Amino acid sequence: MANLFDYLAWRGDLSFTQSPLNPVDFLIFSQMSYLPFDGIVPGPHIKEGVSMNLALNKLKEKMRVCKSDTDLGFKEDPELIDALYTSDRFRNCQLHGFINKINTEQEYQFSAICIYTGDGSSSVVFRGTDASLVGWKEDFNMCFMDVVPAQIEAVNYLEEISAFLDGSLRTGGHSKGGNLAIYAASFCKKNIQKRITEIFSYDSPGFNEYVLANEGYLAIKDRIKSYVPQTSVIGMLFEHGNNLNVIKSSETGLMQHSLYSWEIMQTGMIRVDNVTSGSRFIDKTLRDWIGSLDSEEREKVVESMYTILGASDVRSIHELENSFVQSMGKIIKFMGNIDEHTRKLIKKTFIEFVRSARRNIDTLMSP
Predict the structure, then answer these.
(1) Is 336 exposed, middle or buried (CB count within 10 Å of its CB: 0-12, 13-18, 19+)?
(2) Residue 124: what are its φ and ψ, rounded to 5°?
(3) pLDDT at 362
(4) Three-state secondary structure string covering the chain
(5) CA within 13 Å, CB half, 153
(6) Cα of 278 vs its chain's centroid, Å
(7) In what order do the strands lie in the sheet with 168-174?
(8) First-to-last C-alpha distance (Å) of the chain
(9) Phi, psi of 337 (to 5 degrees)
(10) Rounded (5°) CA angle 178-267-33
(11) Residue-wise pLDDT tens digits, 61-113
């Protein structure tokens, strides 16, 4: 059950000119984009970059001084930092254009980084949803909004950073990051769009018909490479408009969303024929459920749930986990004060979800 760490050991001594960039490399870039490079990697208005080796060294020093790794999103991140630091293939890449924005008023979370691999091309990598509640809120907003603010940010970022880059471009990301990459490639200026050779999407939610029918999306559709684990949930949301490559994962259930669990073979990932019956069941249930609510009801439910979580005074998933009992006490107390209309809507939403699950239960029995 080889993973990305095994890949780093196998090919860590080969430069990108010796062995061209492949989907596993971009998977590693996508995971790396979650690292907190704030104050370490120059922003998008600065052409000069910093070597990955130096950036990781500064990050390790930052973690040592703070004596904490709480800014890291995944427990495997320290091992990734060490593996990249000692890898000749990755340590000499140039990092620049780092941006990390969270706007609670406009309800968006956006982060991206650009990586020059020394082979005449650059990779524009969009970060997926971080642990902030506002980041998760923006994801849920996709249920009723044609466009969310992070998608607009992604288009602006790609157009801005491209002015500093020579040669061809690749773009992509994990989870929401892949969605942002596809959206940015679809709606950016045509001269930039023509420079994009590949778009990598790792277990990313899809789009509504507004995007899929757009001329820009149709122009880049054949350059999209989409990957999902066999029990995908996030990557099955909404429509994709292209074929999904199903990848074997060493984890189960929702934990398969972690790229650290995806199984690697040589320069690719181990594929399986189809997603599991459980994944198809969740997909059909969610589609049924969302379809049972009109746009106004979806918005009201999302706003209500965000308000309820906000009553706990936490700003991130990590804070909610660390003070779960205290936070739940505040949430339960707050729910007693919500208005009757909202309470009925939440009850209706729950009932519709149960009904949808019952209607699709036979999916679990199919091979």
Answers:
(1) exposed
(2) -100, 115
(3) 67
(4) CCCHHHHHHHHCCCCCCCCCCCHHHHHHHHHHCCCCCCCCCCCCCCCCCEEHHHHHHHHHHHHHHHCCCCCCCCCCHHHHHHHHHCCHHHHCCEEEEEEEEEECCCCEEEEEEEEECCCCEEEEEECCCCCEHHHHHHHHHCCCCCCCHHHHHHHHHHHHHHCCCCCEEEEEEECHHHHHHHHHHHHCCHHHHCCEEEEEEECCCCECHHHHCCHHHHHHHHHEEEEEECCCCHHHCCECCCCEEEECECCCHHHHHCHHHECEECCEECECCCCCHHHHHHHHHHHHHHHCCCHHHHHHHHHHHHHHHHCCCCCEHHHHHHCHHHHHHHHHHHHCCCCHHHHHHHHHHHHHHHHHHHHCHHHHHCC
(5) 23
(6) 22
(7) 50-51, 94-103, 108-116, 121-126, 168-174, 196-202, 224-229, 244-247
(8) 24
(9) -105, 0
(10) 35
(11) 888 877 666 567 788 999 999 999 999 999 889 999 999 998 767 667 899 99
Domain spanning 4-275, CATH class: alpha beta
Token look-up 């199903």 returns 246
Q: What is the mean pLDDT of residues 230-258?
A: 84
Residue 312, pLDDT > 70, answer no
How many Cα atoms within 13 Å fall on the side-chain side of residue 185? 33
CA 277 – CA 127 distance, rounded (Å): 29
Q: HSE of 247 in the Cβ direction (CA atoms, 13 Å)? A: 30
Placement of tokens 């149709």 in the chain: 218
Residue with tokens 């994962």: 249
In contact, 16 and 58? CB cutoff 8 Å: no
Q: How far is the CA of 307 from the CAs of 129, 302, 318, 333, in angstroms?
A: 19, 9, 18, 13
Task: For residues 169 and 171, give the distance between their C-alpha atoms in angstroms, rounded to a whole number.
Answer: 7
Please give the Cα distance from 349 to 298 (Å, whole number): 9
Q: Name which of 224, 170, 183, 226 is nearest 26 in CA terms.
A: 170
Q: Which residue did the predictor score with more confidence, 143 or 248?
A: 248
Calculate mean pLDDT across residues 244-256.
Answer: 88
What confidence score (pLDDT) does residue 47 get?
78
Question: Domain limits of the chain?
Answer: 4-275, 282-365
Token output for 53: 């080796």
Full-model pTM: 0.85
